[in-house]
Amino acid sequence: MATLPIFSESGAEVGKYEIDTDQIADRISKQLLHDAVVMYQANLRQGSHNSRTRGQVAGSKKKMYRQKGTGNARAGGKRTNVRRGGGVARTIKPRDYSYRLNKKALRLATRMAIRSKIDDGEVVVVEKLGFDGPKTKQMAGVLKSLGLEGTTTLVATAEHEVSVYKSGRNIAGVSVEPVRQLNALSVLKPKRMLFTKEALDRIKDGTFAATEETPAVSVE
Predict the structure, then answer these.
(1) CA-CA distance, 39 to 177, in Å (whole number)?
(2) Which of 134, 55, 43, 148 is nearest to 96 (CA)?
């Protein structure tokens, strides 16, 4: 059982929040977390790397000079990989790095990641985030009041709240996601997590559905 202080937007403690981390995940498997994170990172790779073979570079295929009698070493065309501007011998081509673990394992990995954040004291609970509209300055003030200024932070909300999302998207190192979109990579990557009380209730009750889709790691 973990007891977390609940803060207001101004940083004042307004209560306590008790949560049984064993209900979130009965254990933490480093191997499963590693496998999930590697999968998400692999799925984020574009795989658009490419280099040209000797058949794709510009230049004549004609032999540069006759085989014997010049005093030079034997040489073929200028496209060969041993010459500057030539093709690459063992080239790389575009490829798809993506693959999938099963949904059950990914959802369990998300729960383990959340539990590890709570166990390590890297979770902050705020009573609510009441923004009338996109207020980046207000969001920055809340983070500063909670001691999260200059720290990579994932803000987890109960639902997709447009005003909170737009308030945090221009702050460096801050991302905003509803609990249903949390995954092992998005949880483990930032140093701290900021939960609204309602969002943590969703985690506690198990009413959130962790996604297995490729994560949006940063807010653009």
Answers:
(1) 20
(2) 43
Q: Which two tokens stand for residue 114?
A: 């959340």
- 191: its two tokens: 């140093």
Quick one: which of 29, 54, 193 has its CA closest to 126? 193
Residue 85 DSSP one-character state: T
Contact between 52 and 44 (Cβ < 8 Å): no
What kind and span of H or E run contains 159? none
pLDDT in tens, 42-77: 999 999 999 999 999 998 999 999 999 999 999 999
- What backbone torsions phi and psi does residue 215 show, to the nearest 5 degrees? -80, 155
Residue 151: exposure state from Cβ atoms within 10 A (0-12, 13-18, ≥19): middle
CA separation for the pair 139, 126 (Å, rounded):
12
Q: Helix crossing, 30-44 with 103-119: angle to 10°?
A: 110
Instruction: Compute the distance between CA of residue 89 and CA of residue 186 in angstroms, rounded to an integer.
Output: 39
In this prediction the pTM is 0.81
Nearest partner of 183 among 103, 68, 85, 63, judged by Cα: 103
Per residue in 99-112, pLDDT (tens digit) is 999 999 999 999 99
Q: Which of 217, 199, 216, 218 is nearest to 208 (CA)?
A: 199
44 closest CA partner among 216, 178, 181: 216
